[in-house]
Design brief:
Blueprint: H1 3-21, H2 25-32, H3 36-47, E1 66-71, E2 74-79, H4 84-97
Antiparallel strand pairs: 1-2
Length: about 100
């Protein structure tokens, strides 16, 4: 497990502790000695872990099949008869903005 993965796991535990505390983010961070900006930085990292690259996908022959991709906070439904060049441009644009 990488050090980044360890930190993600630590922050997941911290977020669980915050939820159980019943405190606001500001109160909880003050009690834990954690800067509020660190809280929000890691919350974003825990909710949207970085993607390491493209994954191979096999499309079924079923013309009604739909593949749903998640890029950041955006979900894209891709039908089996998609335009490969268009999908590549859309994903590249989304990846740069998410």
């Amino acid at each position: 497990m990488s050090s980044h993965d360890v930190r993600l796991a630590e922050w997941r535990d911290r977020f669980a502790g915050h939820r159980l505390s019943g405190m606001s983010v500001t109160e909880w961070c003050a009690a834990e000695g954690i800067p509020v900006n660190n809280y929000y930085y890691w919350r974003k990292r825990v909710s949207n872990p970085p993607v390491s690259g493209w994954m191979p996908v096999t499309i079924a022959d079923d013309k009604s099949a739909v593949l749903t991709l998640r890029v950041g906070r955006v979900w894209v439904d891709v039908p089996s008869d998609f335009d490969e060049a268009l999908l590549s441009r859309v994903l590249t644009t989304l990846e740069a903005r998410c």
